[in-house]
Write a structure and sequence with these properties.
With 222 residues, the chain is an alpha+beta fold. The chain has helices at 6-22, 36-56, 60-92, 113-116, 126-141, 159-179, 204-210, and strands at residues 99-102, 107-112, 145-152, 187-191, 212-219.
Length: 222
Amino acid sequence: MIRANKPILALTASALLTVTACTSPAHLDGTTNPNAKAQQGALLGGVIGAITGAAASDKKGKGAVIGGAIGALGGAAIGNALDKQEAELRRDIENDRVKVTNTGDRLIVTLPQDILFAVDSARVNNSLRGDLLTVADSLRSYPDTTVQVVGHTDSTGAAAYNQGLSERRANAVADVLMDGGVGFGRIQTFGRGEDQPVASNLTDEGRAQNRRVEIVILPNPR
């Protein structure tokens, strides 16, 4: 069993405070920091690497430094790649209702159901195939990632039916990505039915937000 020691706990606390302070997306003068997510990835990678290196090394101080350096480099590379891919997707996707979100450790491409499918259908609208193929091109340009395609519905109708529809829609989007050259082994599909709403199902607007397919792009561990 790995025992925590005071130097490592202090290192962790200090590094986590640094992540919060140094990766803020805005400067004091109101300007934004375009490298915030890359810096966050580097610092978080450094924290994890330092702890891992210290725990694995007989000479804990040396292990922490080496592990932190390796982790920081890996985290920075992931953060930079996500920032670059995000910018390219925003530039190249033509439908302004397709949303690209960068959380710092993954990209989420959200496609509203009403532009993606007809009512009660799992056939991708021709008007959205081009944007899905754009996403596929991006995925081929950044091959060191795993892709999760997740279907969601609102709460209208039977839960079991909604679950099946969300699965069929996720599979339909995955099929288009594979048509665009993304390898079968990189893609995982999930149906969440009505279980993961992002808005209230009590209003038309909320239900529309809940009907969606998300393409989640996850960097592979390094």
